[in-house]
Design brief:
- The chain is an alpha+beta fold and 422 residues long.
- The chain has two domains: 166 residues, Probable inorganic polyphosphate/atp-NAD kinase, domain 1 (Rossmann fold); 157 residues, Tumour Suppressor Smad4, CATH 2.60.200.40.
- It is 36% helix and 24% strand.
- The protein is built from 13 helices and 18 strands.
- The protein has a six-stranded antiparallel beta sheet with strand order 6-5-18-15-8-10.
- Helix 2 packs parallel to helix 8.
- The radius of gyration is 26 Å and the shape is flat.
- InterPro entries: AGK_C, ATP-NAD_kinase_N, Diacylglycerol_kinase_cat_dom, Lipid_Phosphate_FormReg, NAD/diacylglycerol_kinase_sf.
- One of its GO terms (cellular component) is mitochondrial inner membrane.
- Its cofactor is Mg(2+).
- Its main location: mitochondrion.
- This is Acylglycerol kinase, mitochondrial.
Length: 422
């Protein structure tokens, strides 16, 4: 024992390094053990769904998984196979995995969606930008024929705006993925809004989060170029962005229409159709008893116009802070003041990397159901639409309220059903 202590004292540098390495290795192994326990518990819960008896004439539910294996720096495929795929197969679903990693898939994907009962998006960072890749799957889902198909979202990245709305926070990535997959099996859904963004000549693009245009977005795109600065890369990207013409102004004209009243939600199950004689009786009674009413003229939309000069403009849905009890449908338009110091720009830029559509104090906040953004001729730069880059151009943005239904954790749905305290 004395020799061991003497050796440790004489080689204290090596001993310290070995102790640190041993401690890190033990922590890593413990984390792997905890992840395996989470996977086992999730699989046992999924197996309970798979063991449920169904009538012999009822076909298995078909689930189509859209997976981009190139997401998360190539780790998405492995994360899905280890954490989500076993749960889906044990649940008794007929699972079809489609890898969206090549062009020209629209026809094949359309055929799959016609025969599927639910859609599952296994994506990386962001929300559903995987839908914009290659075949624009989100535009297919927005179509009337597919808008009733529930959509499940399995977050395979570290930061996902949509996953924070659908699922509670988790202690580890494995637990976050398994909780999201189990939420799909539990069947609770919530309606999410969609933005339809259309240029003058382009096909419409659909977004679940929103649109950003301005200096913070432009600086955020360049963060990855400063990877060698480690945790300082975000501040560095925004700091070097201030070397341009300052203050950075983005000028445009905005026309918008205010919020619209939310109609009552239609029941999921329609009542059975009455017999023919009942329908004939009702039609004859309504024809002879009630006077003919002339159709009322539709009131013209009340457009408001605004000239703006801002450091950044964002148009976002209410999906980040969803309230199922609200009586109006609208999107949030945030016009940030251009009078920002360079220090505030760097600090606020770091905050916007975590919450891209945050609207800081001092900004002009507008609620609208539809808007038209007119840009001056020769305007350069790009839009960020659900973290995908598009050329900046005049666009019309229209809110499609409660257009898609996403699976969510029952606890999150319960919170959204509670009216906010006044």
């Amino acid at each position: 024992m004395a020799k061991v202590l003497a050796a440790l004292r004489n080689h204290w540098k090596k001993s310290t390094f070995g102790a640190c390495l041993l401690g890190w290795g033990g922590h890593w192994l413990y984390g792997k053990h905890c992840d395996n326990l989470v996977r086992r518990a999730a699989c046992q819960e999924a197996q309970a769904f798979g063991n449920q008896l169904i009538p012999a004439t009822m076909p298995l539910k078909k689930a189509t998984v859209f997976l981009n294996p190139a997401a998360c720096k190539g780790k998405a495929g492995n994360l899905f196979e280890k954490n989500a795929a076993p749960i889906l197969h044990l649940s008794g679903l007929d699972v079809t995995v489609v890898k969206t990693d090549y062009e020209g898939q629209a026809k094949k994907l359309l055929e799959l969606m016609e025969s599927t009962d639910l859609i599952i998006i296994a994506g990386g960072d962001g929300t559903v930008q995987e839908f914009h890749a290659n075949a624009n799957l989100l535009s297919l889902c927005v179509q009337a024929a597919f808008s009733k198909i529930p959509i499940g979202f399995i977050p395979l990245g570290k930061t996902c705006t949509l996953s924070h709305t659908l699922y509670p926070e988790s202690t580890s990535q494995v637990q976050h993925i398994t909780n999201a997959t189990l939420a799909i099996l539990k069947g609770e859904t919530i309606p999410l809004d969609v933005l339809q963004i259309k240029g003058e000549k382009e096909q419409p693009v659909f977004a679940v989060s929103g649109l950003r245009w301005g200096s913070y977005r432009d600086a955020g795109v360049k963060v990855s170029k400063y990877w060698y600065l480690g945790p300082l890369k975000t501040k560095a990207a925004h700091f070097f962005s201030t070397f341009k013409e300052w203050p950075q102004k983005h000028q445009a004209a905005l026309m918008y229409v205010g919020p619209t009243e939310r109609p009552p939600e239609e029941p999921e199950e329609k009542p059975s159709r009455p017999p023919l004689y009942v329908r004939l009786y009702r039609r004859l009674r309504s024809y002879w008893s009630s006077p003919k009413e002339f159709p009322q003229e539709v009131a013209p939309e009340d457009w408001e116009e605004l000239k703006l000069s801002t450091i950044e403009l964002s148009i976002a849905t209410q999906n980040r802070q969803l309230d199922l009890t609200r009586t109006e449908d609208f999107m949030d338009i945030c016009i940030e003041a251009e009078s920002v110091s360079k220090g505030q720009f760097v600090h606020r830029g770091s905050q916007k990397m975590r919450d891209p559509h945050m609207c800081p104090e001092g900004s002009q906040h507008i609620q609208a159901s539809r808007c038209i953004l007119q840009l001056p001729e020769g305007t350069e730069g790009s839009f960020g639409i659900d973290n995908e880059e598009y050329e900046a151009m005049p666009v019309e943005v229209k809110l499609l309220p409660r257009k898609l239904r996403f699976f969510c954790d029952p606890r999150m749905r319960e919170q959204m059903m509670q009216a906010p305290v006044q």
